[in-house]
Structure formats: C-alpha cells, structure tokens
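We both want to read discrete structure tokens more fluently, so let's practise on a single case. Once you have written the record down, we can walk along the chain together.
***
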Amino acid sequence: MVLAAEPLYLLVDTAVVGHLGSAELAALAIGGGLLALVAWLGNVLAYGTTGSAARLFGAGDRTAAVVDGVQASWLALAGGVGVALLVQLVAGPLTRTLAGNADPGVAEAAEGWLRIAVLGAPGILLAMAGNGWMRGVQDTARPMRYVLGANLISAALCPVLVYPLGLGLNGSAIANVVAQTLSGALFVRALLVAGVPLAPHPGTLRRQLVVGRDLLVRGAAFQACFLSAAAVGARYGAATLAAHQIGLQLWSACALALDSIAIAGQALVGAALGGGDVPGARRTARRLTVVGGWCGLGFAIVIGAGAFVLPGLFSGDAAVRERALVAWPWFVAMLPLAGVVFALDGVFIGAGDVRFLRNLTLVAALAFFLPAIWLGYRLDLGIGGLWAALSLFVVVRLVGLLARVAGGRWAVAGAPT
C-alpha cells in the first residue's frame, strides 16, 4: 500500500487535473514523471530495508530489524532534503527538455507544479523507509493505516484546492505535499515509540548503501525508460502526452497493487532464508509466481472491460481519449506478465539477489526498450509504438526471471552481512 502512495496521489491528480485541459494534463505528465524519481529512491530504501529486516527478524532478532529501519530513515531524511534542494535548482531545464515539441506553456506549468510537489520528498522517503522495516518484521497493519489516511487527505484536498480555491494545477501539488509530510511524520513517530537506539550506525549505513547501490542502478534503468517514454510522447504533441499520462498512471496503480505480492515475497522469502529454510523459500517463490500471474490476469480483465469508460474519467478531450485507446491493448496485455514479474522481483529482493535484478533490468532497458522506443519514434508509430516498447521491456524481464528462479542459485540461507 505504501509503495502505491505516490502513484495513487498522481492518479487522483490525473483525474482532477485532466478536466482543466490537455495542456495541464500534459504538464502533470512531465512534472509527475520527474517526481516519480523521488518515489523510485524511496523504493530503493524500502526494498533494501525489507530484505535485511526480514532476515534479521527470521533469525529471531526483532530489535536489530527495527534498528535497521532507523538507519534507513536517516538515509531517507538526508536524501529527501537533498533532492528537494536540487530540484529547485534544475526544475526549469528538466521540464523544458522533457516537454520538447509540446505547447511552451506545458513546460512552464510543469516547472511550477514540480517546484511545489518536490517539497514532499522527505515525507515520501521517510514513509518508504518506514514501510520497509515494518514489512520486514511483518507489521503490515500500521503502514496501511498511515498511508490510507494520507491518501484520503490528498484526495479530499486536491479537488478543493484546484477548483473552488482556484489554485489550478498547483493546488494538486500542495495536496500532495501535505499528505506526504503527514505520512512521513507518522512513520517517524513509530520509530520514536519503538524503544530502540536512534543514533546513526556507520556500519549499518554502509551495508544499506551497498545494497542500495544495486537497487539504485536498477531503478535508474526504470526511470530512463519512463522518462524516455514521456519525452517521446511530448514530441507527438500535448494530446498524445496527456493520453500517455492516463495510461501510465493507471498502469502504475495496477502495478503497485500487484506489487503487494512482491512485498509478501520480500518478507516471507527473507524470513525463510534468515531462518535457514531454503526449501520453504523455494516453495514460497513458486506459489507467489502463480498467484502473481492470476492476479495480473484479473486486473487485465477489469482494465480491458473499462477501455471505453476509464479514459473519459480523466479527460473530456476527444483527441486524448482516442489516443489512450490506441495504447489500451498493450496496457491490458502487459498486466498478466507483469504480475509474474513483480512477484519474482520480490522473491529475489527478499533473497538478497539484487545484483542479478540490476543486471537483468539494465539489459532489458538498454538493449531492448530504449532502442525500440526511439525506433518507434523514427518510424512515427505514435503512442502505439511507445507502449509496444514498454511491453517488450516487461517480456525481457519475465524471461530472465523465470530462468533464474528455475535454477535455484538465488536461495542462500543466512542473515544479512
């Protein structure tokens, strides 16, 4: 649920802002794509912390697992403040570069939205780090309450700030910041009442940075893909970029709902291997693979059935809806495959096999996705070519993950070192 927070914020924003016009929705696509970099940093913290905390918890040392969360939170706070300051310096050049051929007003609106929204970066990262250690110790109820409460606040504030108070696009950014900051504060409070040492621990910080390095490179490959997709969409015009935003935010919401299976994989596989139960970890991996595929199929049925309804909820522009429908078959076809991919991602993160995930993602991004998307642009394939490249990215990862899980070399017992 916590990992879905930022995409859910942006999904609500997409629905609210989409009715301001295609230019505003295109601006949100640019700004939201850049803000997603912050959520990606949070995922690095959350995934790395879940795996190590789960292994410590499985080995019977809950206190050490929570202390792992303290260290991750120090990294989150430092990273969040650093990102917020950096974006204030580079927001203009970044948004203008991504906007490309779109209406010049798109880049300006995206810059204003991003400068406000990035102030929530410390809250985003603290919430991700907090969810990481809580998942590791299998405390899943509190994170859900914290994030659900923040989402409800954002969902209530966004339309009020955008329309009755007349803040327009910037109103959605303010709603995001309020909700993200509250969510981060709740996770900090959970650490304060846990009764564990709160001082930074250099050894643990170094270990987390090593794990984070591989996840960071892996995440950079993801972000290169999504930002390239936004840049290509912008070069087809505001309507295509707005349609891509609709599809991408729905995809992100589905993906991170499916990622709940990956979260279970991180916690269960990490705990099993931490306790020395290698056969149990392998059985869990097989079960999660099947469950991920079936859940992905369920999402595909729902999204496919809503093809002629869902785009209209986000935009009243006929050109935007028409282009969204071109992407829809690719979107639907990806979901069952993605369910398996996300489940196995969680298995390998829980097992600490992050180097393999890094290498596989780099191959899928650099050797397949990026050449495919820019070739599609050269051939003028439009939004269909863009989403075909995204599908190829998923398929390549699926093949690599299935081969790895069948081999069994990933299942190594023991606590993190």
